[in-house]
């Protein structure tokens, strides 16, 4: 049986938290819970998608391999985030591969369990659509940030998303490979390093794979400020 702490994290994921309690219990009771070591594969590109995945701890990357053998990181996911909904519900192959980039705890929900619930309670379909829309809205926000925010502001937003508190000091864990963060934020690794340096006056210190934030409100003010002001800092 899954640890109660892991269940609590799963309940807060975007996909699960909007479902009625009785369906949440069904999903949690039939889900598979697994630990992955750093570098371990969750699934490979072109494998049949049979499950929806929720990261409970650690970091997971989605990537594609180009014909020349180079790797293109599509996205990275961390605690409370889910992926694979669309392909699993359509029973189509994964368009990407997934790999744990740190030690990670992941919950796998069999797609058949969710589709069965949807057939029994069609109202759930609206919830799933809403969750999918939220994912899409998040992508739109990322595109908006690329055009309207400085690199340091995008990094600030990224850190705020990882914070588990709304005010006061906070410390978040980052993947050791900062290239993954840079790829998610549409930046080059050297630009990411400069962005971290620009965040020092906003109370952010990077210590190996930890970001220490002096005050969440101060960092939020920086992220929301006029980009012209941020460039001058």
UniProtKB/TrEMBL annotation:
Keywords: DNA-binding, Transcription, Transcription regulation
SMART domains in alphabetical order: cNMP
Stretches assigned to the Cyclic nucleotide-binding domain: 15-133
InterPro entries noted in UniProt: cNMP-bd_dom, cNMP-bd_dom_sf, Env_Response_Regulators, HTH_CRP, RmlC-like_jellyroll, WH-like_DNA-bd_sf, WH_DNA-bd_sf
Taxonomic superkingdom: Bacteria
Matching SUPFAM superfamilies: cAMP-binding domain-like, Winged helix' DNA-binding domain
Protein name: Crp/Fnr family transcriptional regulator
